[in-house]
Amino acid sequence: MGEKADLEKKAIEALQRYREAYAKAEALEQEEAAARQEVYKRLNRFEIAKAKGGAARVKPEVSAADQEAISRLGEIRTALSEATATLDSAFRALAALDEQLGYIPGVSAAGELP
To answer: The pTM is what?
Structure first.
């Protein structure tokens, strides 16, 4: 196989890794938004209960669910950070191959990467 064909193959593989990383990061962003909303909703309920003087009567299972929601948000944010780093790495690899080839195989000049 020629050097150009090898570079094209690497570019196609890099594009696939980029698309996979992009899809994962996008899914985690949506999951993070939902988890953040859940935490805010729980915090709001707690603040309302506190304002009404009922915060001292919060049931242990409610408190545990609140902690679980916060923990889940932290886990998602960590995963999103890792996915973003993977996406950045995939983009840099793809950009380097684009620089070498002058194009990305299978992507039209007017086409955009996701």
So the answer is: 0.79
Structure tokens at 83: 């996915």
Per-residue pLDDT band for 55 (boundaries 50, 70, 90) equals low
* Distance (Å, whole) CA 90 – CA 40: 33
Check: CB of residue 96 under 8 Å from CB of residue 3.
no
> Is residue 105 a contact partner of residue 11, using CB atoms and an 8 Å limit?
yes
Cα torsion 9, 12, 15, 21 to 10°: value is -80
| Burial class of residue 99 in the structure, from the number of CB atoms within 10 Å of its CB (0-12 exposed, 13-18 middle, 19+ buried) | exposed
Is the C-alpha dihedral spanning 42, 36, 78, 17 positive or negative? positive
